Task: inverse folding
């Protein structure tokens, strides 16, 4: 993709695609199967709720994903989709270790998203929220 338009947001379709590539379900450059995209999309609804409950998502479920969150979210997605796609061991275990949200030691993805949040809160004065 070029750097024009919205260069830094990750679209949901890009997230689904990256998730499938991370699990090695879709090869680079090959179109993903529609049923695979559908499975990942349904899983994202669940994962988004988890992220939201932990205060790690500052965007809406239907929104594109902020640039500094995209990679972390794709790690979380691959971890939570690994069962759906019968990812073989040891890859499945490593995906889970990178992306699960409730491990005794926070996963790489969770640490990234927590760090992103703490940096954001430190660098911005508190804004009133309007709903």
Result:
């Amino acid at each position: 993709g070029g750097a024009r338009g919205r260069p830094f947001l990750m679209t949901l379709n890009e997230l689904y695609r990256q998730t499938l590539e991370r699990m090695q379900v879709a090869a680079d450059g090959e179109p993903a199967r529609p049923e695979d995209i559908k499975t990942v999309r349904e899983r994202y609804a669940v994962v988004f709720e988890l992220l939201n409950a932990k205060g790690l998502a500052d965007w809406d479920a239907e929104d594109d994903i902020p640039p500094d969150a995209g990679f972390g979210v794709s790690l979380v997605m691959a971890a939570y989709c690994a069962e759906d796609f019968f990812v073989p061991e040891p890859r499945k275990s490593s995906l889970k270790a990178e992306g699960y949200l409730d491990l005794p030691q926070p996963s790489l993805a969770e640490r990234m998203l927590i760090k992103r949040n703490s940096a954001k809160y430190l660098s911005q004065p508190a804004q009133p929220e309007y709903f």
Summary: Confidence is low (pLDDT under 50) at residues 1-6. The two ends are 34 Å apart (CA to CA).
